[in-house]
Amino acid sequence: MRNKVDFVESISNEADVICFTETHLDEIIKNEDIIIEGYNRDPYRKDRNSSGGGIIIYISKFIQAKPRPDLDFDSEALWFEIYFPSHKLLLCVVYRQPSNNNIFWDKFHESIENALSYSLNVVITGDVNVDFLTDYSHKIFDIMRLNGLKNVINEPTRFCATRQSLLDPILVSDSCDVYDSHVIQIDRTYSDHDGTIVFLNNLTRSKNNTTYKRMIWDYRNADFDKCNELIATFDWESIINAENSMDQNYFIQTTPQCYYKTTPAYTFLIQLNRFHPNFTSVILQDSSCFHTTDATEQILAKLPASAIAGLSMLTHF
Fold this sequence. Notes:
Layout: H1 2-14, E1 17-21, E2 44-46, E3 55-59, E4 64-67, E5 77-84, E6 87-95, H2 102-116, E7 122-127, H3 139-146, E8 149-151, E9 158-159, E10 164-165, E11 170-173, E12 178-184, E13 195-200, E14 211-217, H4 224-233, H5 237-240, H6 245-262, E15 265-271, H7 295-302, E16 312-316
Parallel strand pairs: 6-7, 13-16
Antiparallel strand pairs: 1-3, 1-16, 2-3, 4-5, 5-6, 7-11, 8-11, 9-10, 12-13, 14-15
């Protein structure tokens, strides 16, 4: 238990937001029983009230945030709007049961689109039960490409006797400036998952009535036969044998042009909603002031070891 207490204390000292999945909590466990000093006294949670599952979010008491139930798409997904002095961020924490089907992913996709129509700064974390090291053809990768999301965790997060997998990604939108992200090792006596953490620099400011364009290439409906024909009939010899660097650059540019000519593309104009920040600039002057004492033991006593499975942290500088 000592190693586990030290671990939670260390991440509490530096994280603005702490997220757990698979909390296994129910109505018997009250919020006052799982308070962490320095964080909101009423942590936001969704309990499955049955075997397994559940999520909980701790947000620093120095940060203003509010739930966004209009974006929630599943019984084990929570969206939050987090305010900073000149911008806002939408955070989603989700636990996906392995048995969830395409309906889950369709709702997940729609939820992300709605979030991006409100703010350019989006972070999604949790346990999605998709191996990001091997399942490259999974639908979640299409969702990420279509919405300009990238995963900033590149190491395994779940370990068993026969394999290692990356089930706990942190997905961020293009506008999020990631200072650092990595995996936090957890003692295997407490969990078969590692935790994850991301540090964000200044985020994109959301201005009133701001619009931006996003172009999406529909490779699923591309005419690859036509593309291959264009590539096959092009005069490559003159380019390949050329010593002129300009011709070599032209060679590099030609192949993508063949794809562009044979792939449908759509341009979307996205308009952001109006936003009025309502707090002072002292909120984030000293993020090192978030400390946890023996209150950490209270949450550890209530949360099962499996809660570490979906542990993720968000810190803003």
